[in-house]
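Example 3.2
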Amino acid sequence: MPRGSIGTDSNWQSGSFVSKHLRSRYSDLLFRTRLDGHDAYIYLLIEHQSRSDKFMPLRMLDYLVNIWNHYLDRNPRARTLPAVVPLVVHSSHTGRRWNAPTDITELIDLDPATHQALDPYLPRFRFMLDDIAALDLPALRARDLTPAARVMLTLHKIAPGNTRLGVDLLALTEDLLAILDGPNGTDELRCVASYILIVGDTQEADLEPLIDRLGPRAKEAIMTTAERLRAQGRAEGRAEGRAEGLIELLTVKFGSLPAATLETVHAADLAQVRTWNLRILNATTLDDVFA
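Structure, written as tokens:
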């Protein structure tokens, strides 16, 4: 971290700079703060895939440019840009460490001699990397973090495909109780439960050892979350079935569909898919369906 004092008035900025089709692989957070009296931002990107992204420097640079453009839209009289500190958090439940570039100059295809000759004119951009995959769990739990951050990072490392989270998370009982006792404790525990049930392969019945430690409030939060996810899954199943039917009809009527159209249909809810199905009857082009 560069020298300087970061203000204590940091606050989260709403919105995401990750494109919709990548949000299953990445989550991002933008925090606004003060650095030595100047506006500054911390941009955090969390990777949800097991392998390193070799084009991450380019992806991060694109996101930072979007942040700066967003800042200029809100501050049209600005004459300078705020500092943005980029941080990528990577983990892999397979234990595979980060093995891709963290500097954009590593992506530029030049032979070594030419690279050295052009070095003063090549773009400079490097992001900080927190490679959770390189840490064992005791080292991760020993970090000076808030309980919510410690739980999140631990889940990020061990949850995918895990069938025994009810036992493995017992070591985080104290942190989970601290979350539950916080001002938005029940809501935050529901978020934790959602992540466990969606990303892991642990069934709610297998969470009993953890629930017994956390008490009745936690049990109610986890059980209602599990029921909500089941209902959501049923609704998504109906929407997916309708989406596949719509794609089949569109293909019959208009031929091979662009990738963007397929993505739009799969991302839509049940009501929107139903509307598009009705429009097919009178549509003469794809634009007529999706207008």
